Amino acid sequence: MSHPYLGLTDDDRSAMLATIGVDSIDELFRDLPRAVRLGRELDLERALTEHELAAHLTELAGRNVDTTRELSFLGAGIYDHYVPAVVDAVLQRGELLTAYTPYQPEMSQGVLQAIFEYQTAICELTGMDVSNASGYDGTTVAADACFIAKHATGKARIVVTEATNPQIRQVVKTYAPGFGLEVVEVPHSDGTTDPDELRAAAEGAAAVIFQQPNMFGCLEPARELAAAASDAEALGIAHVDPLSLGVLEAPGAYGCAIALGEGQAAGNFPSYGGPHYGFLAARQGFIRRMPGRIVGETVDTAGRRGYVLTLQTREQHIRREKATSNITTNQTLLALGGLVYLTWLGPQGLRELGETCLALSAYAKQQLQERAGLELVFSEKTTFKEFAVRVGRNARDVVAAARERGVHPGYALGRDYEGLDDVLLVAVTEKRTPDEIDRLAEVLAEVARS
Amino acid sequence: MKLIYEKSQPGRRASLVPRHANLAAAELPDELRRRTPPRLPEVPEFELVRHFTELSTRNFGVDTGFYPLGSCTMKYNPRINERLVALPGFASLHPLQEEDGVQGALELEWRLQEILAEVTGLHAVSLQPAAGSQGELTGLMLVRAYFEDRGESDQRRKVVIPDTAHGTNPASVTMTGYELTHVKTDARGNIDVDDLRERVDEHTAALMLTNPSTLGLFDENIEQIAEIFHGAGALMYYDGANLNAVCGISRPGDMGFDIVHINLHKTFSQPHGGGGPGGGPVAVRDILEPFLPVPVVTRTAEGYALDFDRPRSIGKVRGYTGPFGVFVRSYAFMRTYGPRLREMSEAAVLNANYVLARLKNAYELPFDRLCMHEFVLSARNLKRDYGVTATDVAKRLMDYGFHPPTIYFPLIVPEALMIEPTESETKETLDAFCDAMLEIAREARESPELLKDAPHHRPVQRLDEVRAAKQPVVKFGFDAHPDLTADRRPVAADAPKGV
Question: What is the ipTM, given to two decimal places?
Answer without folding.
Answer: 0.98
